[in-house]
Design goal:
Thermophilic metalloprotease-like; single chain; about 375 residues; 2 domains; globular
Length: about 375
């Protein structure tokens, strides 16, 4: 039916992450049939809590077909008739991403992706779900996922559950000194191979992420002052809208991307031309999960890599806003750059060097 690890994970998601109470509603969405065991565990746990589960199961090929052939009118109808009214009744949302092929949507056109983002994803998820539910999104292990991580299947499964079932309360405590520093910071600078970029975060809000919204988790984020981002930055491998990028390099002036290079410049240019906000940044974050060491072409893991930062193209989050209302949100990850807060080096490569922040180094968390 489902594994004991799935049962543990279901309890963590519904009790710790979603903080559900008796009588509340939770939407359980499975995209890809691979994760049905975890879905079963979530349904069983929800009913034992006397919580009301609403279940959606989506085949990834059918989703691709809909996105390929959808348009503004279609997605407005989907949102307004079905998904938005349902989401408005939910107290929590759990999204399991269990696709066997991360490149399933690689051939979807720019217009089709934009229509889906603007008229469905944005109103249903980025505006309603993100802002008005206790939500959590996670991947599910598979042979294909293990291949992207360059691990044997069973070793990857062990890694997956270790990262997901981390002691997030301990991690939260270790984050607090960094959060305190960041709330007093004006200028952040990243310096490393192919990277020398700075920006202001003066008076911006900071959010600690410790298993409440993503599984696995471990990040501390805000957003840069829009016009303050200046310099150049190099990112690790990434996949966005089903399109792979072995590397991405951006040149930024007055907060706007003015030049770029990547392994797929045609696709990158399409993404950057989505709207005005797609060439600006809506989030900056520290990756802090001590279990996750290397990129695996999956942003829910890669953005949590310890010793990393992501400076995100596109829309901000309401709890840490900077005015970017783009229809994209692409978490691109920079690994191992030195980090300076108002001129003081706090991280050298991937290790925090000031005494108050050393609790965030992996050897002190696992």
């Amino acid at each position: 039916m489902y594994t004991s690890q799935d049962a543990q994970l279901a309890k963590k998601i519904l009790h710790f992450s979603c903080e559900l109470e008796e009588g509340q509603n939770v939407l359980l969405q499975l995209v890809g049939l691979n994760g049905v065991g975890l879905l079963r565990a979530l349904v069983k746990e929800a009913r034992e809590m006397n919580v009301n589960p609403f279940v959606q199961i989506e085949d990834t090929e059918i989703r691709r077909m809909l996105i390929e052939n959808g348009d503004k009118k279609f997605w407005e109808k989907q949102a307004q008739t079905d998904q938005l009214p349902l989401m408005k009744q939910m107290d929590a949302f759990v999204g399991i991403r269990a696709s066997q092929n991360i490149y399933e949507q690689a051939d979807v056109s720019k217009k089709a992706n934009k229509d889906y983002s603007d008229y469905f994803l944005k109103p249903v998820h980025l505006e309603e779900r993100v802002n008005n539910t206790n939500w959590v999104v996670l991947r599910y292990p598979s042979e294909a996922f293990a291949m992207n991580a360059k691990m044997p299947t069973e070793k990857f499964r062990e890694f997956y559950y270790k990262a997901c079932l981390l002691d997030y309360s301990q991690l939260h405590e270790a984050m607090k000194p960094l959060e305190e520093r960041l709330r007093k910071t004006d200028i952040i600078q990243l310096k490393g191979e192919g990277t020398d970029i700075q920006f202001s975060v003066k008076d911006q809000n900071w959010i600690t992420c410790f298993g409440k919204r993503n599984i696995p988790d471990g990040e501390l984020f805000s957003s840069p002052i829009l016009s303050s981002v200046e310099g150049h930055i190099s990112y690790a491998p990434s996949v966005y809208q089903g399109k792979p990028f072995e590397f991405v390099k951006l040149e930024v002036r007055d907060g706007v991307v003015v030049d770029f290079d990547s392994s797929n410049n045609d696709a990158l240019e399409e993404i950057l031309d989505t709207d005005a906000g797609a060439r600006q940044f809506g989030e900056f974050s520290f990756g802090l999960n001590p279990i996750i060491k290397e990129p695996m072409y999956d942003i829910l893991f890669d953005e949590k890599i310890y010793g990393s930062n992501h400076l995100t193209l596109g829309k901000d989050y309401e709890e840490a806003p900077n005015g970017n209302d783009s229809s994209i949100h692409w978490d691109l990850v920079c690994i191992g750059a030195d980090v300076y807060l108002d001129g003081e080096k706090i991280r050298e490569g991937r290790k925090f060097v000031t005494e108050d922040l050393q609790g965030l180094n992996p050897e002190n968390l696992v």
